[in-house]
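Lecture 7 notes: from sequence to structure.
We start with the chain below.
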Amino acid sequence: MRRADGGLDYRCSAEPVAAYVRKGGQAADTAGRQCLCNGLLATVRLGQRRPGGREEPPLLTLGKDLGFLAALAPKGAAYRAADVVRWIGTGVEPPVERLPTSSA
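Predicted structure tokens for the same chain:
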């Protein structure tokens, strides 16, 4: 993002709340956020170690193209991570009737 003086400023909703708010963000936007940069590095075992020994959790993504979801989950049907991996590996969609539905 650009600052008023034209310089660039970094703002990540996963950074400490006070820093995010100081840079113009809203505290509510930080709830439940995980840093994409740190999460992807944690996936390859290069995650940050936090105070108290907590380690950054890994983060997996499917990328930007979500065009396959219509085939994987027709009409918004539920699917699991294992179904996505199977579909990516084989291109075969799982039978919808065996997929669990969300209770949330």
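Points to note: The helical segments are 17-22, 36-43, 69-72, 81-90. The chain has a mean pLDDT of 78.
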